[in-house]
Design goal:
The complex is a heterodimer. Chain A is of the alpha/beta class. Chain A has one domain: 3-Layer(aba) Sandwich (Glutaredoxin), CATH 3.40.30.10. In chain A, the strands form 2 sheets. Chain A has a 5-stranded mixed sheet with strand order 5-4-3-6-7. In chain A, strands 1-2 form a two-stranded antiparallel ribbon. The termini of chain A are far apart. Chain B folds into 4 domains: about 160 residues, no CATH class; about 210 residues, no CATH class; about 100 residues, no CATH class; about 100 residues. Chain B has 18 helices and 10 strands. In chain B, the strands form 2 sheets. In chain B, strands 2, 3, 4, 5, 6 and 7 form a 6-stranded antiparallel sheet that branches. In chain B, α2 packs antiparallel against α5 and α13 runs parallel beside α15. The termini of chain B are far apart. The C terminus of chain B is likely disordered. The chains are: A alpha/beta, B alpha+beta. At the A-B interface, α1, α2 and α3 of A face α10, α11 and α12 of B.
């Protein structure tokens, strides 16, 4: 056996240990403002994800009214957790447009049937292209977009009850 | 009093573990050889003491002794007896006690039963086992004492999470635990053999039954867990790639690889260093899984009592044991003699390839599980789901299935491939037929389900081919074991592929008397009535199901249960199993308009998943029984290779050699 290869497992474990240790030490849920804030939405024109909601394109965000862009997926567990709070926002009159990431239409329909459908429009992003362009690295994420198509705020992770007033405030500021 | 006696037993057992470690280590030195015989009895007594402590915890739960904090927090006087018992391990402290109990008892059994191994290696193994146990004793006694009293005692307990009040829970966690922790024996054997430089066929034979046993429990435990999730959570799914599920899958993958390589070492004296490595990795994965679940650093649907302080404790244990074992491996691996050589195109070659692919899947699962943790360090919360795990693990799994089909048909050392290619024509034909059938009759079902069905057909045929032209009555049991286990993989795979290919689902808001169709079924909602159980009340629907044009009516009673303590609602799905699939019904809530939500699934061939799992476990049991009786008969015969006289060395010598 090669001499260095013998120590490889220990080295790999060292990396693993470092990951675990940072996971334990790092305080969870630090929110840092994203680099995307203040930049215009990238160009996109997504196909319909479900039959009963229209498709989603960049032009849907430039009608003067601030909206939310929610990146979600039927296979994502935190997305289930945030569903009721998205609904709360929708009930408060917020227009929420969804982007379904790497999903299949029947799965999205099931997901919406099960967890509620707060979306005005849903686009299907089958290869995470738009997600990538948005600078979003995971699911779920929610962006506040002002009426001119500028990204004003990015919320990473699931929306919890305590985030709802804050997001409403951000939408007001975006007016 | 019982709690105090139990705690005393635990302290005594821990003290014996110290003795086992110290005396065992001293016995390995030149002067200490006279203490060699003392180590086995100590291990046995330690096992007995910790088993008594665990039995007493069960007694406390049976009596619902609310002056014990753990009982008050997790039990309730009104709970059915089986869940009082199960409550003993359905929580952090109790399950840690189960952990050390299994470790202690496994050590005791090894000390009692294993007579083939060189005595020095045996003592080193037991010392290693004690060393690992000690960390967990310390963890329990200093930070998770299950026998802590509560003063004043409450009038009533908190109850057990109703999701866990299910026969599945009574068996699933302890089964998995025996599997996880049973792997500690393999770990200790590896350490023992590294210390005494005794890695050879004798070591492999001694280790094999323990690895087999642990693997069987893991297999059955995972199968049971998947079944439990399937019908208790009411989501209709059987595997969610949840971190806790992955935590059980990873040791299984490593143990499966180990199981195969240990056989190569036992029969062919090859793959020495690799087998030792896998033995270390397998138990390491058990500990990593425990860490991930208990520390709360990952978000999981399995809510466990999480606590960062406990996390730090387990992380320290990980560093000591895994780091220590890998360092020992690094120091000693170069002194492990090279094993017997073999041609890459041979049974050994196939097993090596399979091992590599299994470790590949293990890596994929580990990375997927940890990815959210890594991104969280960069302030991003993500959830990695099936779109990653399914295709990426498939890259490794499908080649592995081919090798699995071909490997058992190949000869040891070197194979010319002629016989193999003619034999493999049969499964290839079966796969081609399956492909044609699926394409013609099922149409587009997606690439992974299609491949799954095709490979399942090929593998099913290939897995029975090792019996071809054999005298079936003289074929040893372990060959049958292998055939059944491999066939079980094919069966389970067929179930998984059918589930994702042919599943039909319907969500309806139904009035009484209304009929709905799902797949070939017609289902009528006839009524909903309240009923009461031991510690719950429920709304129970009466559904009448008819299959196709048949007039036979079957009644299904899905329930939505309300538990009083703690107040929680659960869904009890109603299942109707037919030879060709399963009807799955869940009762939802009542709408404002008096309609009831119903979720109905028709899942063709889905039970194959668990039948396959059971077959894999059964195959393991056959192989274990067959091998053990065979090994016993052969006990007096000389070993495959006379083991070299172990050098009377302190550990330092090994370090020098490795550095040279």
């Amino acid at each position: 056996m090669k001499h260095w290869a013998i120590w490889l497992p220990l080295a790999l474990f060292g990396v693993l240990f470092a990951v675990f240790a940072t996971g334990l030490i790092a305080p969870a849920d630090r929110t840092i403002a994203s680099q995307m804030i203040g930049k215009p939405l990238p160009q996109f024109d997504l196909p319909q994800a479900v039959p009963d909601r229209p498709a989603l394109a960049r032009t849907n965000f430039t009608d003067g009214k601030p909206k939310l862009l929610n990146v979600f997926a039927s296979w994502c567990v935190p997305c289930i957790a945030e569903a009721p709070y998205l609904q709360q926002l929708a009930d408060a009159g917020v227009e929420i447009n969804g982007v379904a990431i790497r999903d299949r239409s029947p799965d999205v329909q099931q997901f919406l049937a099960r967890n509620g459908n707060p979306y005005a429009r849903i686009g299907a992003d089958d290869v995470s292209k738009i997600q990538f362009d948005l600078g979003s690295s995971g699911v779920p994420e929610t962006f506040v977009i002002d009426g001119q198509g500028m990204i004003r705020y990015q919320h990473i992770g699931d929306i919890r009850p305590e985030h709802v007033p804050m997001i409403l405030q951000k939408l007001k500021e975006a007016q | 009093m019982i709690a105090e006696i139990a705690l005393a037993m635990l302290w005594l057992a821990a003290a014996l573990a110290v003795l086992q470690l110290v005396l065992g280590s001293y016995a390995l030195t030149v002067r200490g050889a006279e203490f060699l015989p003392a180590v086995r009895p100590i291990a046995v007594v330690q096992g007995v003491l910790v088993a008594i402590a665990f039995a007493l915890l069960i007694v406390l739960f049976l009596r619902t002794d609310l002056s014990v904090k753990l009982v008050a927090a997790n039990s309730h006087s009104l709970k059915p007896i089986i869940y009082k018992v199960a409550g003993a391990w359905g929580n952090h402290e109790g399950s840690m006690l189960l952990w050390v109990t299994v470790m202690g008892m496994a050590g005791g059994f090894v000390a009692l039963l294993e007579r083939r191994l060189n005595e020095r290696t045996m003592v080193a193994t037991l010392a290693g086992q004690a060393f690992v146990s000690l960390g967990f004793y310390a963890f329990m006694l200093f930070s998770s004492n299950p026998f802590e009293r509560l003063n004043p005692a409450p009038a009533e307990g908190n109850g057990l999470n109703p999701l866990l009040q299910d026969p599945g829970l009574a068996f699933h966690p302890p089964t998995l635990y025996i599997g996880y922790v049973g792997l500690s024996i393999a770990f200790s054997f590896a350490i023992g053999a590294l210390i005494t430089r005794d890695v050879g066929p004798a070591f492999a034979r001694a280790m094999r039954p323990w690895v087999m046993g642990a693997w069987i429990f893991l297999t059955l435990g995972i199968t049971a867990g998947s079944w439990w999730a399937y019908y208790e959570l009411g989501w209709g799914g059987w595997w969610f790639w949840d971190p806790v599920e992955n935590a059980s899958l990873m040791p299984w993958l490593a143990a499966t690889a180990l199981l195969h390589s240990v056989s190569v070492l036992a029969t062919r004296n090859a793959l020495k260093a690799w087998t030792v490595m896998l033995a270390v990795v397998a138990f390491s994965m058990s500990m990593v899984g425990t860490f991930l679940v208990r520390s709360g650093i990952l978000t999981s649907v399995h809510a466990f009592a999480v606590d960062p302080e406990r996390g730090s404790f387990i992380l320290a244990l990980l560093a000591i044991y895994i780091g220590g074992a890998l360092a020992l491996f690094g120091l000693r691996a170069s002194t492990v003699t090279e094993g017997a050589r073999f041609h890459l195109f041979s049974r050994e070659g196939a097993l090596v390839m399979n091992n590599v692919l299994l470790v590949g899947v293990l890596g994929i699962v580990l990375m997927g599980t940890l990815y959210p943790l890594v991104t969280e360090a960069f302030d991003t919360k993500v959830s990695v789901g099936p779109p990653y795990f399914n295709p990426v693990s498939a890259i490794f799994v499908f080649p592995m299935l081919i090798i699995m089909a071909a490997g058992p048909l190949m000869r040891w050392r070197s194979d010319n491939g002629r016989k193999l290619s003619s034999l493999m024509a049969v499964p290839a034909l079966a796969a081609a037929v399956a492909l044609a059938l699926v394409v013609v009759f099922a149409g587009d079902i997606g690439i992974l389900p299609l491949l799954g069905l095709v490979f399942a057909a090929g593998l099913a045929i290939a897995s029975v081919l090792p019996l071809w032209k054999r005298n079936l009555r003289r074929t040893p049991a372990h060959i049958y074991g292998m055939v059944i286990a491999h066939l079980g993989i094919a069966v389970a795979l067929a179930g998984m592929a059918s589930e994702s290919a042919f599943n039909t689902e319907k969500l309806v808001a139904s009035e009484f008397g209304q009929s709905h169709t799902v797949g070939p079924w017609t289902i009528e909602l006839q009524g909903v009535k309240p009923i009461a159980g031991a510690n719950w009340t429920a709304l129970e629907a009466r559904l009448v199901a008819r299959y196709g044009d048949s007039n036979v009516q079957t009644v299904l009673n899905p329930q939505s249960r309300m538990f009083a303590s703690p107040p929680t609602a659960t869904n009890e799905a109603a299942l109707l199993t037919r030879w060709n699939g399963q009807l799955y019904a869940v009762l939802g809530e009542e709408g404002d308009d008096g309609r009831w939500q119903l979720r109905l699934w028709w899942k063709p061939f889905v039970p194959l998943i668990w039948y396959g799992g059971l077959m894999i476990g059964l195959g393991g049991i056959l192989a274990l029984v067959g091998r053990t009786s065979r090994d016993r008969r052969r006990k007096d015969e000389p070993e495959f290779e006379p083991t070299a006289a172990p050098a009377p060395d302190p550990a330092v010598a090994g370090g020098k050699e490795a550095l040279a």
